[in-house]
Design brief:
Helix content: 55-70%
Number of domains: 1
Order of helices and strands: EHEHHEHHEHHEH
Structural class: alpha/beta
CATH class: Alpha Beta
Number of strands: 5
Number of helices: 8
Largest sheet: 5 strands, parallel
Low-confidence stretches: none
Strand content: 5-15%
CATH architecture: 3-Layer(aba) Sandwich
Strand order of the largest sheet: 2-3-1-4-5
CATH superfamily: P-loop containing nucleotide triphosphate hydrolases
């Protein structure tokens, strides 16, 4: 069993991964942020480091998926490989922050990996407005995130909505973060857990 949590920067993926893993007693798997050697440089100079950053994330996510497959454990995963390939890299290319040559190389690399990828049993998408994202990013106080551009977050949100509107790889649950404060209110977390149970066990039609 594999639940994956998708969403923009600051939407609460890591927090929800932690809470759901604790509730279900499943294994949490987090995005490699602190160990990413390119992240700080990327936010200082996106154009220079975009390809390096995206390849690092792609490699890390693919390795994680392969390890999860071998383990046979029940998993809650923070962010999916699809977001890297279908949202972040295309967005950087569209913004002129990744060259066409690098982007095409990246797309080819992902297409090879995609043949070995099994989609999650349930995708949870955390939808959030840009003001909510900015507020959450500010609260967690990561120094390197202070340089994130508003237009970058806005474009990512637009791409997330486009991706989610056509997602067909499996079951999906959409949570509106502007109206659900699961990290603060147990009753809001309870609503998410009920939705997850319904999707995984067919309690609701």
């Amino acid at each position: 069993m594999h639940i994956a949590i998708a969403g923009n920067i600051g939407s609460g993926k890591t927090t929800l991964t932690t809470l759901l893993a604790k509730h279900y007693k499943w294994q949490p798997h987090f995005e490699e942020v602190d160990d990413n050697p390119y992240l700080i440089d990327f936010y200082k100079d996106m154009q220079r480091w975009s390809f390096n950053l995206q390849v690092f994330f792609l490699k890390s996510r693919f390795r994680q998926i392969m390890e999860l497959k071998k383990s046979g454990k029940k998993i809650v995963q923070d962010r999916t490989i699809y977001e890297d390939a279908q949202i972040f890299a295309p967005n950087l290319h569209a913004m002129g922050l990744m060259t066409t040559r690098d982007f095409e190389n990246y797309v080819d690399l992902f297409s090879v990996m995609d043949e070995f990828i099994t989609p999650p049993d349930l995708l949870i998408f955390l939808r959030a407005s840009v003001p909510a994202l900015v507020d959450n990013i500010g609260k967690r106080g990561r120094e390197y995130e202070e340089a994130i551009r508003l237009d970058y977050l806005t474009r990512l949100n637009e791409r997330y909505e486009a991706w989610i509107s056509t997602y067909n790889k499996g079951k999906m649950l959409v949570i509106d973060i502007d109206n659900n404060r699961f990290h603060e209110k147990p009753e809001d977390l309870g609503k998410i857990i009920s939705g997850v149970d319904g999707q995984l066990h067919g309690l609701f039609k």
